[in-house]
């Protein structure tokens, strides 16, 4: 059986408890058939797992892992919002922000970590439009932050 749960299990992923907002915002907004998810950081076991600037403190494989963690946390938020990931009809768009040095130009390779994970878990429903943008800095010195818009049933 090729379900979302079985794919997560095959990938060795257990979704964490969705993180609570750290300021005056909500983790998600459900508007009509769209779920807007606030930016997620590369949290793992309750701690920020990847910090610093990509191109200086973090290499591309490490930053790609940070993007995967962001995608896992997006799925955790979707689970909290919807109660059931099978309600996701389509990941419409993700926006990936990469804290990087001015000369680093491979943000797209970093955000591939999130894109590939979403497709691995959700199949065709995980295919999405996206942006991959370099930033001078991100909250808490995170290397990557990603938000998402999902169409839901």
Task: Give an overview in words.
The chain has 153 residues and is an alpha+beta fold. The chain has a single domain, classed as 60s Ribosomal Protein L30, Chain: A. 30% of the residues lie in helices and 28% in strands. It has helices at 4-10, 60-82, 107-122; strands at 28-31, 34-40, 43-44, 47-48, 88-99, 129-135, 144-152. Strands 1-2-7-5-6 form a five-stranded mixed β-sheet. β5, α3 and β6 form a beta-alpha-beta unit. The model has no long low-confidence stretch (mean pLDDT 96). This is Enamine deaminase RidA (YjgF/YER057c/UK114 family). Residues 5-144 form the Endoribonuclease L-PSP/chorismate mutase-like domain. It comes from Allorhizobium borbori.
Outline of this structure?
The protein is of the alpha+beta class and 153 residues long. The protein contains 3 helices and 7 strands, in the order αββββαβαββ. The model has no long low-confidence stretch (mean pLDDT 96).
